[in-house]
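Regression report. Comparing outputs from two consecutive submissions.

Submission 1:
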Amino acid sequence: MKKMRCDMGSEFHSVLDSPEMMEIKKDISKIFLTCFKVYTEGTIMEYNLFIKFCRDFEIFPEHCNKAVLQSLFDALCCEQRERQIKLTSEAMCRVKASREKAEALKSGKCLDKERFLDAVMLCSFKSKLVESQLNPVARVLHFLEKLVQSNGIAETKRLSGKIHLFADMDPLFEVREKYGEHFKEASARDKRRKIFNKVFGDI
């Protein structure tokens, strides 16, 4: 079972290995790593905090059910654990990892910040509300657009105690400017879908 989960994690990552996807991950890191720090108050995210994040940003239950999120979480944890096992105690010291973090990572029951970013992006490919016919880049961007329009940003501000967090700032402004064509494609398909559903009902 563990082997299957790790293989599933590797399969997921094949989607994110394109240069464009890696660039998007870099571009959104400032936004979502800020969220990561607020939700975890540290360097690791356990499953209960991951689900809280997903609920606040309306990933759950609007986009993905718990079974899907659990599978993603387990797969990424398994992949992460395999890498962590290769680290020596000397390496752990070099990266200044705490004993608690080291134990949590070895147990495979949490995500570090890199795997968290992967989880956010991978949820777009499991979303019930994002057009499956969109190209991968447009699919991820359309999903991220829905996240920043959710209550998640406001909740992140509340949890941080910093009401000016993200103030006067469109969290996806730079990304939208950079990938405008993909956003337009996603927006056009979303409008057509809403019109279709209004006429014929959700299918």
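Submission 2:
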Amino acid sequence: MDRLLLQTKSKTLNVPHPSSLPSQIVKGRGLKMAYYGQPQQPGNQQFLWEVFQKVDKDKSGAISSDELQSALSNGTWKPFNPETVRLMIGMFDRDRSGTINFQEFGSLWQYVTDWQKTFRSYDADNSGSIDKHELKTALTSFGYRLSDKFYDILIRKFDRSARGNIAFDDFIQCCVVIQTLTNSFRQFDTNRNGWIEISYEQFLTLVFSLKC
């Protein structure tokens, strides 16, 4: 049997549009951009340039994934999720150089700032992380109708700390992955009824074509 019948709600996730990084806080001598920080200064190119230069440690004129990861804070002592960094660089690296130049950095800054606001709005207990109930509230407001069992799967998948909740960087990855999967599903859901019928090879093509 080489055909699969899949069902889900083919919703569009209303998440921050790829458009810059959250507010800066200074820890010691190093710049840290975190989801809890001082108010940013949108539209201030001089301010963004100063931040860009601090993140660009090797003064190459572009920000690498390692430099971006070290500049981002997720509110824990663990390094910022490398998969989330990879996803964001892939979104904003328009010239496919593998790095982020200053023009691309402005959009990346706004993107993470938007995620900062989204994360804080659903972190109801101000714990600095999202638990199962808060994640369900967030995704339900985005338009998804998912079972409690599936939320258990999401928490296990994206909870890198094994504490039963997900941090800021993992929350971004979770939402981006779900949106990517939804977009792929919608390509086959031509009737927009939440059902698709595809061959085994189509399923494999869908999975291996995902950029998440």
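Expected: both submissions complete independently.
Actual: both completed, but the second showed a warning that disappeared on reload.
Relevant detail on submission 2: Confidence is low (pLDDT under 50) at residues 1-40.
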